[in-house]
Prior knowledge:
The complex is a heterodimer.
Chain A: E1 2-7, H1 13-37, H2 42-54, H3 57-82, H4 90-107, H5 114-143, H6 147-167, E2 192-194, E3 197-198, H7 200-217, H8 219-229, H9 231-236, H10 241-268, H11 279-289, H12 294-317, H13 323-339, H14 341-344, E4 345-350, H15 352-364
Antiparallel strand pairs in A: 1-4, 2-3
Chain B: E1 8-19, E2 22-33, E3 37-41, H1 48-55, E4 63-68, E5 71-73, H2 78-83, E6 86-89, H3 101-106, H4 118-131, H5 147-160, E7 165-169, H6 177-192, E8 196-201, H7 204-210, E9 213-218, E10 221-227, H8 233-241, E11 259-269, E12 275-285, E13 288-293, H9 300-307, E14 315-320, E15 323-324, H10 330-335, E16 338-341, H11 345-349, H12 356-360, E17 371-372, E18 375-376, H13 378-391, H14 408-422, E19 426-430, H15 438-453, E20 457-461, H16 465-471, E21 474-479, E22 482-488, H17 494-501, H18 511-514
Helix pairs in contact in B: 7-8, 8-17, 14-15
Amino acid sequence: MRILFEKRQSISHRAIITVPIVSFLVALLLGAVLLLASGADPIKTYAAMAKGTFGSMYSFSETLVKAIPLMLTGLGVSIAFRMRFWNIGAEGQFVWGAIAASGTALFLNEYIPSWLLLPSVIMAGVIAGAIWAGIPAILKAYIGVDETLTTLMLNYVAILFAQYLYYGPWRDPEGYGFPGTALFPESAWLPRLFGRAHFGLIFAIIAAIILWFIFLRTRWGFELKIIGENQTAAKYLGIKIARNIVLALFLSGGLSGLAGAAEVAGVSRRLQTGLALGYGYTAIIVAWMAQLRSIPVLFVAILLGALIVGGDQVQMVMNLPSSVGLVLQGLLLFPMLAGSLFTEYRLRLIRPERENSQIDAKVES
Amino acid sequence: MNNQRQHTVLEMRGITKRFPGVVANDHIDLELQEGEVLALLGENGAGKSTLMNVLIGLYRQDEGEIYLRGERVEIHSPSDSANLGIGMVHQNFKLVRTMTVAENIILGLKDLPFVPNIREISEKIRSLSERYHLKVDPLAYIWQLSVGEQQRVEILKLIYRGAQILILDEPTAVLTPQESTELEGILKILTSEGKSAIFITHKMDEVMVFSDRVLVLQKGKLIALRSTSGTSPQELARLMVGRDVLFRLEKEPCQPGDVVLEVRNVKISDDRGLPALKDISLKIRGGEILGIAGVAGNGQGHLAEVVTGLKRPQEGQIILNGHDVTRSSSLEMIRSGVSYIPADRIGMGTVENMAVADNLVMKGYRKEPISIKGILNPKQITEFAQRMINLFRITTPTPATRIKFLSGGNIQKTILAREIDACNGLLVAVYPSRGLDVGATESVRKMLLAQRQQGRAVLLISEDLDELTSISDRISIMFDGRIMGTISSDEAEDEMLGLMMAGIPYEQLPSENAS
């Protein structure tokens, strides 16, 4: 018997759905082995995780709090990745979104009418994120600077600058020395839907639908697809590559900036320590697991958000380290990468009899 | 090196290699003598590389045998061929830029100790490089070396590993004239030591300089075997481009209209700064096909890119329908009705991972009703694609099939459909029927003639003399970035085309040819 991998003539939609689900189950199995080795009962652990993440409206809202920034950054990253632009700077774009939103909320509230303050806060975040992604995009598109380095390095600049702000000039003088700014004025708060789950969820859903539409039905999306697949062809077809890369990265960074703005305006309501938790990096896993498709990003983000919250839960309930969630997150990637083969390829088993008969036929002819 | 006692070191007998839809090698015989340089001459797609890939084990032949010093050998992988003393210098060097020459040479050797003695190895390399005049510092990093030096490293690598048969794939394509002369000397020394070389090329002058014998391939078939001293560049040119007349196309008399394209004194340099087009001027009228003949690499590609706006000339003017378009972008050229069928169908002409329908609409998607205000209309796209598929007889399972699963002929028909539909004035076609089977070739040529009938100007760049003489009205012959002469296709004769393709201007042709 011979196993043959055959390239599919068109992408299998069934595989797109089943691969992430099967990968998740495989990751749970691998995680179970690890849990057993460390002396914990995997079933009880998983049950605790599930209960802590989806067990009640409150716990689900906490899962969403983690999932919302993952959705928005995941969408942002997937646009860039579709263009083969390896934007690993979503973290920095997220942090800049938070900084710009905070600055607007804290220092411009006197100049902006209160009904306009929240929209200004959000827009400031979007623009700051877009600019932060635009810098490496322009460097790459016009002078060919490698984007993996620039986007990664700019993360540190953003994170450290945010720290400087809330430890230094922006620190709340009445904050008893806690590293963080003062609370935003109430007119800059992003409304909450239930629990702590905030309006950012609506932004993410709208953004996903818009992106889906852009890539499915617009001329611009069509051009982006061509650039992502074959730049030589794009150039030959008269598509302006550099301009499109920069525009797409503005959108990519803008979404991460939106995530940052929603995070400070919706959750902490101030710029404070514990902002940069690595959403921008987890976003890379989200984007790949969703195969760079916008609607699936939403669901994958909820799943990974649940792993973060679930990790905290097992720490509290089972006395296990909270990194269990992170370990599962890591374990997810392996079956996922292996499984993505099946969306492009089909497995065919060839029985030896048939092969022989083919050879015989050849000889006869 | 015409030794009296000749030893055959390598023999390939009846090598046949088929790819879907194409016979890349059709019962080819090759014999290589000890100490000789055998040139393998043929246009792109003639099957030279396939034959050599069979020899080094990258492909497995469907039929035929390989004998090494009289013994039959089976070559399944490049390591098999390396063990048998056969090595190849690829066109794109396989060197690690951040490692030294010595490290690159021993990279991948199996019988190395865990910690190789670099000094000892360097000494061995140094003595080899002196012996063969392959001047290179074993401790230099690859990125520090010029292209010519890198090529020497590749040759050294093969010699270090004990190769007796060296295959050089278009080795001069990347070299300066001085470096080419040095390579000539290196080959002389190698062959005087009893090593043999196979030299892949599509340039006749190189055959004359480097080789002892020459094997001419054409469309996968062995056309001729000549001793270099007994042939001429002209004969080789004629053998290479071939004259097997497949069919005759009915051609209406030419009814030229206004001048559509005028190129005036255009000059351009290639990526390395060497002149690629040296003062090119030409005119094409509506309803006329101007053929550009010439061996590949004489500036034809640059000419196509200059008139389609993909490259800007450094000097000169391009006039389209009376307007100066020298500074126009490719998008502006597309908008003014210039269509382009590129030589590289897969890499440039199509996006292989996208659907046939998407590929068909890649020029028309900017126009109504396929898109309105930036929004695509999927129904219109499908209808358009279906119409093109029927009109141009593209064989595809569905319009949604990814184009890479189509045959070469159908991929080309897809490009033609898209370009002809978008064309309004000038159609530039580069090697439009290369590698296609007889049927597809015929339909491609008919489509070009139909464009001429509709009053469009066609610039046809081809290596196929049969194609040029059968469908073009006039033929310009390019050599080394210049036009050697322009003749009416009725008066075109092989001999005279061959002479001009070998670099002799029309005015200097011997009078019996120029009559």
